[in-house]
Design brief:
- With 261 residues, the protein is α/β, with parallel strands linked by helices.
- The protein has one domain: Rossmann fold (3-Layer(aba) Sandwich).
- Helix content is 31%, strand content 17%.
- It contains seven helices and nine strands, in the order βαβαββααβαββαβαβ.
- Strands 1-9-8-5-2-3 form a six-stranded parallel sheet, with helices on one face. A three-stranded antiparallel sheet has the order 4-7-6.
- Strand 2, helix 2 and strand 3 form a beta-alpha-beta unit.
- The termini are close together.
- The mean pLDDT is 96.
- It binds 6-phosphogluconic acid.
- The site of 6-phosphogluconic acid has 16 residues, from helix 2 and strand 4.
- It holds the Pfam family Glucosamine_iso.
- GO terms for molecular function: 6-phosphogluconolactonase activity.
- This is 6-phosphogluconolactonase.
């Protein structure tokens, strides 16, 4: 359907390399239009491999990384030094290797940095709202009221075999949460169990959503996500960017793409 694109790639490695190239080019184009650019990162295999590919690509030198705003779609609520932390993995893969502006790298709080999950959620929501207000104050053409989240140019989403996106899991409270930008997740079926996630409303405020997935174990989730299933049961089917939604997948994950598409 409209502005939904499906692009199968021959392998995981090719998918990560082209997604890296795509993101570099997109950030560069947005920077030349607006001066800065904003990306929301994802954890998971393809998401992190993409960041590694960016760091290794000579093309990444074209981007002014000091003017890229980084946010996270979700993170695992673990200690700051845990290898499970999406931020730590992203730092190791990319952020430690490029000249970012630390003030533009927006990290979800680790479990040893706050009293509890609610505080981590509240802090991230406040950080999003602050950035949104700043943008709103600097923009003459902005709406009457400040939005609660800033503009996201590209939002990356990994995909679970159960069709979860970020930390919004099927038939759990998070996927239904409305009226706030960030949600805390307990009892995640994917370990670790405690997580912080953007809500679906926040995710869908992005200009472009890029769903990245590889492997035969993702084929059913891709098929259902594209078939227009109920988002409560199939969270990925609810992800829809303002301008574009891209399914960047490998051939194994594309095995059950509905033929009508
Ligand atoms: C997380 C993720 C999650 C992930 C998918 C896909 O924190 O675990 O953000 O949404 O992207 O589960 O992960 P894999 O590609 O590793 O299966």
């Amino acid at each position: 359907s409209k502005n939904v694109r499906i692009t199968p790639h021959p392998s995981f490695d090719v998918l990560a390399a082209t997604t890296a190239a795509r993101l570099i080019t997109r950030l560069l184009d947005v920077q030349s239009e607006r001066g800065e650019a904003t990306v929301v990162l994802t954890g998971g295999s393809v998401g992190i491999a993409t960041l590694r590919e960016i760091a290794q690509s000579p093309a990444h030198l074209a981007v002014d990384w000091s003017k890229v705003n980084f946010w996270f779609g979700d993170d695992r609520f673990v200690a700051a030094d845990s290898a499970d932390r999406n931020y730590g993995q992203a730092a190791e893969a990319l952020l430690n290797h490029i000249p970012v502006d630390p003030a533009r790298v927006h990290i979800m709080a680790a479990s040893d940095e706050v009293a509890d999950l609610d505080e981590a959620v509240a802090r991230y929501a406040a950080e999003l709202a602050d950035a949104a207000r700043q943008e709103w104050e600097n923009d003459d053409a902005s709406p009457a009221e400040a939005p609660v989240v800033p503009r996201f140019d590209v939002l990356l989403l990994g995909l679970g075999p159960d069709a979860h996106i970020a930390s919004l899991f099927p038939e759990m409270a998070g996927i239904r949460t409305k009226g706030c930008s960030v949600v805390g997740v307990h009892n995640s079926p994917k370990p670790p169990p405690t997580r912080v996630s953007l809500t679906l409303e926040t995710i869908n405020s992005a200009q472009e959503i890029w769903i990245v997935a590889a492997g035969a174990d993702k084929a059913a989730a891709v098929g259902l996500g594209l078939a227009g299933a109920n988002a409560f049961q199939v969270p990925a089917s609810g992800a829809r960017g303002v301008n574009k939604t891209m399914w960047l997948i490998d051939e194994a994950a594309a095995a059950k793409v509905p033929s009508a598409l």
